[in-house]
Amino acid sequence: MKKKKICLIVGISPFFLGGVSLYQKHLLDYIESKKLEMDISVLYSGNEKKVFYKKGVKYVQLKNTFPYPFNQIIDNIKFKSFIQKNDFDIINSHAVWGHWMNSYKRRRNQRILHTYHGITFNFFRNHLRRFNLFKKILCIPLLIFSYYIEKPPLKHADKIVCVSDKVKKQIETLYGKRKNLVVIRTGVDLKKFKVRNKLTLRKKFGLKKDKLYGLYIGGGGYWTKGLDRTIKISEEIYKLNKNYRLIIIGADKKKVNHLIDKKFVIFLNRVPREDISQYHSLADFFFCLSRYEGGAPTMVVSESMASGSLLICSQSAQQEIIKDGENGLIIKNYNKHEAKRILKNRHNKKIISNSKKTIQELSLNNWGKSYLSELLE
Predict the structure, then answer these.
(1) Which of 4, 27, 68, 309 is the most buried (most CB within 10 A)?
(2) How many Cα atoms occupy the beta-carbon half-sphere of 330 within 13 Å?
(3) Overall fold of domain 198-360
């Protein structure tokens, strides 16, 4: 039987261990674990043009040095040109890297699947809350751009995967209802992310055994990810308990230095991916205080839940699988009252146990099976 020829469009580097890249890596890992015979090409853009193979997968990097948002337009033009010249059975794209479908001449019996990890229009609209009237007016073209660049997959893809119910609802609100939408929540690797001995790990990483540790992990926009909120609630926790420390991983220090200059902050610029699971395990609680998220759960939230730390979410993060007081805490404010509630529940075995039970259903294996089923249908 002829191997299925599949093109996976990542857009950004597939070796960046976060976001869409990590999502795609999980799919490749699942395919490898099941020993499925497929001819896979991963398509993305970078500073130079190159082609190479790794673990039997063909990686194609197309050159694009344009600044944002022009790089997104050029990406889609180059992706369409490459796909048009190659005979793929299945094409799987993500986020804004699906605009290439707009004028693409589909081959016979070709299947196209696109995944929305969030809605760019909603993401940008959320950002407008930061700006004054003048800046809001300047950003209107960006809103229009985001509306049109993400629209084509809804018309041309055979199947649309949404990473949460809210993303599905946002698509339907913005573009109208579609029959080809399916929700598949992001999975977590339960073999890597699990409960471990906190004291052993703290010793390993040079942390004090008797301290109380909060954890924040997030690159990209610190305002959207809610680092300022995490600092604010952490200040209240620190006032109540001087043994408290907040570990921050992944933020751009130049951009957040004005926020993190606190006695209780432990800033770690870069941590190897293999160590991330251990930091989740050694923490007493994890913060997801975002102002906008597509995933519900997001990848870091599911990893935290599997690792046995108390999950603390903002209401605006809309982590749909979390119910306040049952399998996590949802906070509306970042004040002394909420700080007391966090400290009171930091060792709440029932909430943590329920959290672990909830995430068991979203194992990487279950996710991979569901996602590949839609891809190969």
Answers:
(1) 309
(2) 13
(3) Rossmann fold (3.40.50)
Nearest to 121 by CA among 54, 170, 52: 170
One fold for 4-186+364-376 and 198-360: yes
The model carries a pTM of 0.93
Q: Which of 222, 212, 169 is nearest to 309 (CA)?
A: 212
- pLDDT bin (cut points 50, 70, 90) of residue 181 is very high
**349-363 burial: b if 16+ Cβ within 10 Å, else e:** eebbebbbebbeebb
Please tell me whether residue 101 adopts helix, strand or coil conformation: helix
Per-residue DSSP letters for 16-75? SSSHHHHHHHHHHHHHHHTT--EEEEEEEEESS-EEEEETTEEEEEEE--PPTTHHHHHH
What class is the 4-186+364-376 domain? alpha beta
- Please write the tens of the pLDDT for every residue from 246-294: 999 988 888 899 999 999 999 998 899 889 999 999 999 999 999 999 9
pLDDT per residue as tens digits for the range 4-59: 999 999 988 998 878 899 999 999 999 999 998 899 999 999 999 999 999 999 99
Q: Report which of 96, 71, 99 is spatially closest to residue 19, judged by C-alpha positions.
A: 96
Closest to 23 in 3D by CA, of 102, 125, 93, 86? 93
In the structure, what pLDDT confidence band is assigned to residue 214 with cuts at 50, 70 and 90?
Answer: very high
Contact call for residues 200 and 177 (beta carbons, < 8 A): no
Residue found under tokens 């130049």: 254
Instruction: Please report, for the chain, the start and end positions of each structural domain, with discontinuous segments joined by +.
Output: 4-186+364-376, 198-360
Residue 1 confidence (pLDDT): 59
Question: Vertex 15, ends 11 and 18: CA angle to 5°?
Answer: 80
Distance CA 120, CA 99 (A): 13
